[in-house]
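hey m, so remember when u said the tokens were messed up on ur end? i reran from scratch. heres the input so u can diff it against urs
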Amino acid sequence: MKEAFNAVMGKKMSAYAAAKHLGVGHKALWLRTTGKISINAHEDRSPGLPHIKQEMANCILLIADWGWGFSAEVRDIVQDFVKTNEIKTQFAEGRPGEDWLQGFLQRHHKISRRTTDHLSCGGKEADDPEIIHHWFQLLQEVRKICCEGHA
């Protein structure tokens, strides 16, 4: 952020160009360059679950391909994961809010909200107990894969 701030204040780049080139938020940079907030504001705040977000996105996509209807239950799964692995976050009671979910979805464009009504007919017709049992076994394997190294 400081590098982007200095580039804008030194008139080397526009705020938009600096934000894009240096990978910082445009609005956050604008707020700092206009003096609305300090350059050091929120410096110590770390993003929620930064080291596992991509792994979570991959797991969510995988289980969606298997027929799981993605919706806001992801917040419950994240809360369970955070508590189980004793990960320190800024979430109240370890449960991310709707704003976190919206941001997560915006950063991972391949993931979209969907319910079982929007899934293929093949997913709806899978009422065979063996198929359901196999699905839950696969889900357990995915959770193990996603959680490896974060316990």
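this time it looks ok to me. The two ends are 31 Å apart (CA to CA). if urs says something different then somethings off w ur setup not the seq
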